[in-house]
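Let's inspect one such protein example.
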Amino acid sequence: MPSIFTKIIAREIPADILHEDDLCLAFRDISPKAPTHFLVIPKKEIVSLADLNDEDQAIIGRCVVVASQVAAAEGLTGGYRLVCNCGDDGGQEVPHLHFHVMGGRKLTWPPG
């Protein structure tokens, strides 16, 4: 069964898209945890970081570059946090690899 992110990529579910290219998609989180909170996802269906292989290097590199570019476009000049949860114990809720980018306020550590 396709994940919610696969449905967003296919435009079956609407999203506030901030960036799209051949490898990835960035869009606002529907349940933001910071004033600015968006996700960057690969278009390739990869379940989690644990499922990466050598062939995925370009995709993951592109996702991180897009996270940086969109963060700059969103005005996160004071900094931001890039988070990738992996598996149930890591807090991953959607079985499609995704990066959270959060900023717009002072973030604390540890996160939770």
Q: What stands out?
A: The first helix runs from residue 4 to 9. Residues 10 and 47 are 17 Å apart (CA to CA).
